[in-house]
Structure formats: structure tokens, C-alpha cells
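Justification of computing resources. Each target in the renewal requires a structure prediction run like the one illustrated here; the chain below, 757 residues long, is used simply to show the kind of job we budget for.
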Amino acid sequence: MIEKSYYKNSSAHRSLSEESIRLLEWDNLKAQLASFASTKMGENAILESKIPTEYEISRRLLQETIEINELEKNLDKSISFSGVFDISKNIEICSKGGVINSSELLEIAETISAAKDLKKILLDFEQRPFISSFLNRLIDHNQIEKILKIGIESNGRISDRASQKLAKLRQELLSKKSERRILVDKFIQKNTNYIQDTIIGDRYGRPVLAIKVQFAEKFKGIIHDSSASGNTIYLEPESIVFKGNKIASMEARVAGEEFKLLKEWSQIISDNDKSLIDMSDILLRTEHALTRSRYSNWIGGYAPIVENNPIVKLIGFSHPLLIWENKKKEAPKPVSIDFHINRNTKVVAITGPNTGGKTVALKGLGIALLMARSGLFIPSIKNPIIPFCPNIFVDIGDDQSLEGNLSTFSGHILRIRNILESLNNKKGLSVVLLDEIGSGTDPSEGTALAIALLKEFATLSDITLATTHYGDIKALKYSDNRFENVSVAFDEESFKPKYTLNWGIPGRSNALSISRRIGIDEKILNEAANYLKPKEVENINILKQLFTLLEPYGYIDYQLLESKDKRGIDTAYISKYQILSPKLHYIKFSSKFQTKDTRPIFEATLKMQKSTVKIYNAHFPSNYYDLQMRIESFEALRDLHRGHQYPSIAFGDFNVSSKDDNKYRVYENQSKEWHIAHIDGCYSCKGTYYFNSGNSWDFLDSIFISKNRGISFDVSSIKVHKTKSNTYKDSGKPYRFDPKLKKGVSDHFAMVAKINI
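Resulting C-alpha cells:
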């Protein structure tokens, strides 16, 4: 049986552990593992399996993986689970007095046969003590297999050999059907002129002939049907009806005898239900071990040394999910990293530039710990050493909850509080993984809080890994030997991270290096260097707050140009590339509309490594205004686009309602110039709509890219970002901002797309 183990601590501890496992993307790895299963039964069992929390269970799973891995490497052919079926439900039906059909019984016989074959291959107490310990319990069930295979043919039909009575009844039935066929042929020969065609039809198991409707009264019999035109009736002639009744009676006797046999065989299964269920569980356990072995080989894994000591030694480790992306989706080959953590190190601070691999490293160690608990090999160079850790607590990602009135910072602190509480009640080793600890608030306060928290984790947890940008945390190593620094390497020449870890060396954010490469004046940079010290920072508006939150993820620039709109409605950019030549283009509306809307098109240029791209941020007049204003806005956008030959991206709120689109075919007209996301790849993007009071959805938001200019959508990436925090629970509509309650987000959903240039 596949091991299922659960936390014995409080429900809060379980919930936190389960959430941590989710954040480490264990379900994704489990799905990949399941794809290596030999049967659907094995695949489902893996998907439903739990991660063991007891050392002995994990140790046994790993040894089973090792044993079957070594065996299959030495065999001439792969171990086969052909003929193994999921028989547990059918056995349960039989045990409750039910009757299963012949195909289901045959599956049980085939599974018995496959179990015997696997036992011959795998049973060896000397070479495979762990696998043999449960394979030895397999009962052969030869008699059951013999009875079922004699009684049931390979196609699932009950054999004539099953009983003499059944064979005799079937022979009689065949004879009567032959006699009826002779009668039908005679009727056809005698009445050729009245029959539509000579093909014998079938209605409800009865032979029928197509008679021209004008001759219907000429014949006695049963009319079973008529043609759609009414020109033909389908008649069972009277001379054949009596014979058909005899056949129907005989068929009922045959069915009765067949059911009697099925009932007898189902009772045999019921009498042996416990040993058969045990056989099914043993086969499932064996297949699980084989699946772990094959997946482990595929990712290039080695059997880890798993001990109850807080020691980590992973050399050349690659994240298994990235290996999958590389092999299955032709993503870049993952860069291998090393982990060196001795029993004296309690806290490892990982520092370095954005997008440099800090979070991936964090998640990588977490998923390696889960793999060790689950009996899997670790994708690293030989002899990986990793602790058995039943307590893994993770704070990764943005846990902002607007609905619960929690800021990003509050969300992180709430989870950290829960982690600290769980550490006080833990049993066994613990590892804590923290991403950007103390971020999301004033830097000086965030630094102080992060230091205090990490010192507490150094006391309560066996190992803590924390990513950070705070310089003071890097200095803890020099005053507290429980701390260690690790940095992600960054190539300042190529302006790219190297995705490797440098142990013992603190990293830096490289903000000045990035700025220097972009072209900021050296005098300014030298001045900035003088201010690299802790100081209070206050954000002056929402855009700056958002940019601050996004900076750790590689965003380097933002732009907002104030428009003439009296309502203060503007558009803005936040970008991972330098935003050049920002400008506003006011739309020249027809004379009667000139004073009604002042929202311009915001144009800018993105200078990438090999490409220059024009971007247009639009917020067209709402449907409160005349449709003609939106038409003229699209014309203005078209003219801007035609004024150059660069690849172009246009996005925003175009305010085109369903009524507008039906009347003027707005988007269809634009598709002559642009590829449009919701037309060219996202047909089900309901969330790009604005929800109207009439319970309908209008297409307002979209992304356009220019045609024939070397730019294209990755259509599989086009989606709508809908979460619990930006969606009303009842209707699914966008969670609109309420200025009184200070809740909500927007009356629009965010639209996301990957664009290839």
C-alpha cells in the first residue's frame, strides 16, 4: 500500500505545513512523477499520496526505490506492469454480495497472472530485502485464475466451456435463429415487388423488412418503425413473429445461465476478498517504487544519504521542475548550484540581484527535502547528503489579501508568526525558508525586524534560509557564528545574473552597476554611492509604492506623465527595460466632441538588447460618450502606429462594449492592423471583460501587437489574472475599489501575455 502519513500536531501546524508544501510547488513535481507510472491506477495513487512525516517510512521508501532501480538496470528488458488493473472497487462490490461482469472478472484473472510474473522477477530476500518483505505476502490464487480463464474468453465473452448447460442453450438458440433466417428469406423471395429493398433490418432485436407504405395492409405482422418520409414501414411479418418469440425466450434462458455463472464467480472473489485486496495493494506499492526509480533516473538523480542531522551537502544540484522544463519544453538547461550547510550553521542569508536565482535556490532546497522524505533520488552529483526534515515552513510570494485588509507586509508577518508558533511545538528537525524577509515596509524598520526575526529562527529552527536585500543582515555572520552568507553571482559586463551561489560571500543588489550600464552620469552615481547607508524612505504616491514592490523582481523604470484630464485620470508604465522618449498624444476628436474627453495615448519606447519597441498605453473614452469618439481614438492609434516601422504593442482599457462591437465591428476592423489578444489566442478570456449591471460581460481590456513586424504572441501565455483578492465571490466580477471602506481593487482584471520579439 502507498504510504499515507499525516502530522500528529495541531490542525494549525498541519495547515501551515500543507501551505508550505504548496508554495514549494510539490503538486507540480508530483504530477510529473505520476506521468512515469505504468498504470492509471498507479498514476492516481501518486497524485493522491501524502508526504511521510516519519523517518522509518521515508527510509523504507528510499530503500525500495534503490532496490528496484538496481534490478531494472541489470535486466535485459524493462519491468512490465502489463495486465495489472485496478481491481479494488470490483472486489469491494463482490464482497458486498454484488455481481460484476465478465470483463471485470477477467481483469482480476489477468492481475493475478501479472502478480505471479512480477513476484518471480522481484522476489529475492538477499538482494532486495525491502521489496521482498511485502512481495512475499503475495498469494498466487492459481485456482481462481484457472476458473476465470477457462470460463471467460480473451474478449470478455463467457465461454461455452463455462458450463454444459450454457453450451446446450446457445446451440439451441443458434439453431432457432437459423430457422428464422430461412423463414425471412422465403418471405423476401415471395414478396419482392412489395419490399423497398432486400436488406434485413433490426428493431429491438427483431428482424424487420422495409415495406412500401401503400402495401402495408397487404401483410399481417408487427410494424416496429417507419421512415422519416413516411413512405416506408418496417414490418416483422406474422410468419416470423412466433419464431422470434421463441428466440427471445431462449435468449432469456441463456442470459439467466450466464448471470448464474457470474454470480458464482463473484462469490469466489468475495470469499477471497482480503487476500485479493492485499495483492492489489502490494502491486500498487511495487509500481510506486518503480515509478520513483524511473523518474529519479530521468532527472539524473542519485540516492541521498538521509539522516536525522541538520547537514546539507548538495553538489551540482538542479531544480527538478527546471529539468522538466528543459527536457519537455526546450527551456534553457538549468544552472546547477551547491549547498553546504554544517550542523553549526543555523541561518543562511542569500543576497544578490533581482532575478538572479535567489528564490529558485530557496525553493530548490525545499523541494529536495520533500523528495528525500518521499523516497526519491536527488538531482545532483553523487552522494548528496540531506536531513530528514518533517517540519518545513515556507514564506515565499506575495500573500497580500485586500479582502482581508492585509497588506503584503502584513501577510508575510502573519505567516512568520504562525511559523514561530509551530516551531515551539515541533517534533523532529525543522527547516524554514523565507523570501525577502522584512520587505514591504520602511527599509530601516524592515531591517531591524528582519535581524530580530532571524536571530529568533536561529534559536528555534535547525536550518533557516532567507533571501534579502538588506545590507545589515549580511553583517550578522561576523558577530554570530550561527549565520552564513551566500550570494548569487552577477556578471556586470553582460548585465546578467549567473544563477550560481557563492558561499561565504555576501551579495549586492547591483543597482549602481545597472544604472551605470543604462547610462546615468558618473557624477550622479558617485554622489549616490555616498548615500548608500540606512535612511528613512517615504513613497510619495501609489505608483512609487507599486514600483518599490516590483523592484525585487527585476523592474528598473516607471513613467507617468500628467495629462490635462480634470479628473486626474492618467496612465503609467512600469518596466524591466529603460523607458525612453515618453510622450502624450492628445486625440483630435471631431469638433462636437473636443471638450468631452482629455485622456491622451501615452507613447514610449523600450530599448531592449536587440530590439526597439514602441508601446502605447490607452484609456479611450468610456461608453458614457458617443461611439464615434472610440472610433476616432482607434484611428489616432492607427496613425501613430503607421508613423514608424518598429514592432509595436498597444494595451489598456479600450472601452469597447458588446453593443459597440456588434454595431461597428470595432475589433474586427482593428485586426487588419494588429494581432489582438482576445481574438488571436485567448478566446475564453472572460476576465478581460468589465462586468455590467445587466449580468453581461463587455470586452474592454486587451493587448494589441503589430502585424508583420517581427513580433508575435505566445498564445498559450495569454490569460487573465483573477484571484480571491480581486474577484467578488458571488458573481465572479472584478472587486471594485470602495473609497469609503478602503477595500477592493478595480472594476477590471489584469491581462497577461508573453510576447516574442
